[in-house]
Design goal:
Layout (H helix, E strand, L loop, with lengths): L1 E6 L1 H18 L4 E6 L1 H6 L2 E5 L7 H7 L1 H18 L3 E5 L2 H13 L4 E4 L12 H7 L2 E4 L2 H8 L6 E2 L3 H8 L5 H7 L7 E5 L4 H12 L9 E6 L5 H8 L5 E4 L2 H6 L1 E7 L2 H8 L4 E5 L3 H10 L7 H6 L5 E4 L5 H11 L2 H17 L5 H14 L1
Parallel strand pairs: 1-2, 1-4, 2-3, 4-5, 5-6, 6-7, 8-9, 8-11, 9-10, 11-12, 12-13
């Protein structure tokens, strides 16, 4: 079969790569073209476009780059028509993918969606278009099935692929990793400021402002695969911190606590059982728009899945050095950490067991044969 997969940003690349592995295992003659990143490219297939070329964050940033976005959409449509896939598989990345799905359905292509757009967070009216344009939806968050049921749209909960991804990439030798990166003997605080330039710029400077106040800890920045160290260096300046590029899971495996930009990394941090403070600050225009359309009580996946505050969220004006210092001090306290660990174990149970990627691949292939 011929598969056309469209993923955006680092998390989509990760989940797309695991889905591709499962497709190749279950369909030895699979032919795959994809929009993704380095992880998907390492699996095989043909890379059409790298996500780092399309990393526009927020409403204002997308608007400013609208011409580029429209060029990508036109190119994608042409490439699909040339390839003539048996199925198009969309992974998250709703702004781009829902536009392609609408066109693809009209052209008669089979459309599957793996990892739902966050329509449960804002603009639930988009479900009408999803019902019309997406033949099958495979969701990874337990509350999504109930959400879609309200709109009479049956979806399949396959479990969360992060459980498999983390299990496959456990650090085998912690001491060797620490020695390799000269991390020393101090307990480590991981700084995960996101993957896009706009968010890293806004988040990292505030995170770094705590370094001198916690001298008994080693601060280590987890670099995103889409950014060069030179970009981080301009923000780091003369701060005494370490930098480890594209090894977030290994970094979390050795960390005592973490300051994390809201996104998939909050869930990854929880699954590694690392106490965290969730941080987020957007551009003024983007934030004002988001505030008016997002209907959620929380922004982190940890709190959304648990439906209560498990990890502290510092959003926009609350994301200050004073508040961050207070919350970091709290998650370093033994009693608070013990409670957080219990919450993390409950979270993992809610996400289901292993095998999300294999299960999704099996359902996609069965759908093509049916």
């Amino acid at each position: 079969m011929k598969y056309y997969i469209i993923a955006g940003e680092a998390s989509g690349d990760l989940h797309g790569s695991n889905l591709m592995k499962a497709l190749y295992q279950q369909d030895s003659n699979a032919e795959i073209k994809f929009w993704g990143g380095d992880l998907m490219q390492a699996v095989g297939g043909t890379l059409v476009s790298h996500y780092k070329d399309r990393a526009f964050m927020g409403f204002f940033e997308v608007l400013r780059n609208l011409n580029k976005v429209l060029v990508f959409i036109k190119f994608c449509k042409n490439d699909i028509e040339l390839f003539q896939p048996d199925v198009i598989i969309f992974i998250d990345n709703s702004g781009f993918n829902l536009r392609i799905a609408k066109w693809a359905k009209k052209q008669g292509f089979r459309t599957n969606y793996y990892i739902s757009p966050q329509v449960w967070a804002s603009r639930a009216s988009r479900v009408k278009g999803i019902k019309r344009d997406v033949d099958k939806m495979f969701v990874i968050l337990p509350f999504e099935k109930a959400f879609y049921k309200k709109f009479d749209y049956p979806v399949t909960f396959v479990g969360h692929p992060l459980i498999d991804a983390i299990a496959d990439r456990k650090l085998s030798n912690i001491e060797a990793f620490k020695a390799e990166h000269n991390l020393g003997d101090k307990p480590i605080i991981a700084l995960l400021p996101g993957s896009r330039k706009q968010e890293i710029t806004k988040m990292l400077a505030v995170m770094l402002s705590l370094v001198d106040d916690f001298s008994e800890y080693k601060f280590v920045i987890g670099g995103a695969p889409s950014q060069d160290f030179s970009f981080y260096q301009r923000i780091i300046g003369n701060k005494s911190v370490s930098f480890i590029d594209n090894k977030t899971y290994d970094l979390l495996a050795v960390s005592t606590a973490a300051l994390v930009t809201s996104g998939t990394a909050t869930l990854e941090t929880a699954l590694f059982k690392v106490p965290q403070v969730v941080c987020y600050k957007a551009g003024f225009v983007s934030y004002q728009i988001a505030k008016r359309i997002i209907t959620l009580k929380f922004i982190s996946l940890v709190n959304l899945i648990m439906d209560r505050e498990v990890v502290k969220e510092l959003i926009q004006n609350d994301f200050t050095k004073t508040n961050l210092k207070k919350e970091l001090t709290k998650i370093l306290d033994k009693k608070h950490r013990e409670k957080l660990f219990l919450d993390y174990f409950e979270l993992e149970k809610k996400l289901g067991g292993k095998g999300a990627s294999a299960k999704t691949a099996k359902l996609i292939i069965e759908g093509l044969k049916g």
